[in-house]
Amino acid sequence: MVRMKYGIDRYAELDSPVHRWDPRLKLVGLGALAFACAFVTDLRPVPAMLAISAGLAVLSRLPLGFVIGRLRYPGVLILLLAVILPFFSGETVLARLGPLSLRHEGILDFLLIAGRFVAIVTIGLVAFATAPMLTTITALRALRLPGVLADMMLFSYRYLYELGDDLNRMRTAARLRGFQPRRPDPHSLATLGALTGSLLVRGHDQSTRIHQAMTLRGYGAAKRNYYHFHAGPRDIVALGATMLLAAGLVLLEVL
Fold first, then answer.
1. What is the four-CA torsion angle of 204, 141, 157, 189, rounded to 10 degrees?
2. Is residue 4 part of a domain?
3. Which of 69, 151, 225, 240 is deepest in the core (most CB within 10 A)?
4. Cα–Cα–Cα angle for 110, 111, 113, nearest 5°?
């Protein structure tokens, strides 16, 4: 089983209704719910979206710090929108702050984008954090995801952290040798470029060795299914409830 120290499936062994949900139906139901949230272009359904996503997070029993931590880094983009949209989007001026004007339409656009972002990312986190990544990818294969894409997802997930560890080791070695960049001067940029190039070359060499080892072990020679999923009545009921919630959000948007 593929498990990472800092992986998204850190809490995949918890016991909750979402963890016990059949992975195939969970991906279908939560995927439909995420697409329904993306379909919303009006601000009025946003509280319902946030309530649904928060309810799923509570139902999955994922720690609050874990959820917030995964929202923090992508949230930087939302902060950029918070700076740009309220002052440059729209025509109705609410207040003037020197040369800038706070605009009503810009605030509404920002709230809509931020609400959809939080809802969709939270739903996606619940979908992928409540089962081991290998189980999730196997469920995607059972849903007829092409094998090449499934393998790419698995290896990307597996070796992204390996590359991160290599980068940290290289940065530590550079600091021990006196490299401490304080400003973007030519010497610092050249050193960082060399470190990045070395990391890419090492990653390419490692991927070549892994592919050769897999080929020697028969990778791609036989196509067999290793799916052992069984959906019970509760799983089907959960899927139906999730699809109804997604349909309700779309209906709110349409009406």
1. 50
2. no
3. 151
4. 65
166 & 83 share domain: no
Does the residue 131 lie in any domain?
yes
3-state SS track over 136-191: HHHHHHHCCCCHHHHHHHHHHHHHHHHHHHHHHHHHHHHHHCCCCCCCCCHHHHHH
Secondary structure element (H or E) that encloses residue 94, with its range = strand 93-97
Please enumerate in sequence order all residues whose Cβ is within 8 A of that of 145, keeping only pairs 6 or more positions apart, or say none. none
Return the C-alpha torsion angle 201, 207, 213, 215, nearest 10: -120
What residues form DSSP beta bridges with 102? 95
pLDDT in tens, 76-130: 777 777 778 777 777 777 777 777 777 778 888 888 888 999 999 999 999 999 9
Q: What is the DSSP string of 37-80?
A: HHH--SSTTHHHHHHHHHHHHHHHT--HHHHHHHHHTTHHHHHH
pTM for the model stands at: 0.78
Do 135 and 171 fall within a single domain?
no
The angle formed by the CA atoms of residues 252, 44 and 246, to the nearest 5 degrees, is: 35
Tokens of 207: 């991927």
pLDDT digits (tens, 9 = 90+) for 141-195: 888 888 778 878 887 777 777 777 777 788 788 778 777 766 667 777 777 777 8
Separation between Cα atoms, residue 204 and residue 212, nearest integer Å: 12
